[in-house]
Amino acid sequence: MNMTILNGASGDGRGETLRAIASTVAAKASARNWTASTFDLEAMDIKPCRGCFACWLKHPGTCVVKDDQEPILKAIAGSDLVVWLTPLFFGGYGPTLKKALDRVIPVILPFFIKVEGEVHHPQRYPRNRALLVFGTQSEPDEEAGRIFHGLVRRNALNLNGIMTESRIYPEEAAPAEWTADIAALLEKAKEAVS
Q: Which end of the chain, N or C, is surrounded by fewer C-beta atoms within 10 Å?
């Protein structure tokens, strides 16, 4: 099983729990003999999307911006499981993850299909994927949590997510709060894509 981990932990000192979760996910994948590609987005040179749609029209599947995003696109295209990690900002993704996700459109096509009665884009490289998204918050916020879980579910439709799960943990969460949950989610993802 191939896995891509996009770690959107911020470099402002608030990302320690996300870094620990990313490390745990990678270690549990390795213990299962899965291939895991981990990207620490804060340390990468990823420029904002230009919105030029050249990745759809001029040179399909390839972004015109040449930076560190290209290996991310290749990893996602070949993944059975995609994992995103982010601090929550008003129920949305943090800027580091959001910038990388904006640049993922080369893996989808500019055409439209109906998914669950809604219009979405089909995959350029058809593959059934599981999506796990882990967020952190400094303080509990029920509305932000509801927005976050809905956003993840909406994004999963465009990624052909056959199994999607999202979790929110406190920024200062101890490993005991998420270790068993991660193991169970990885097993659930394996069953979904098998």
A: C
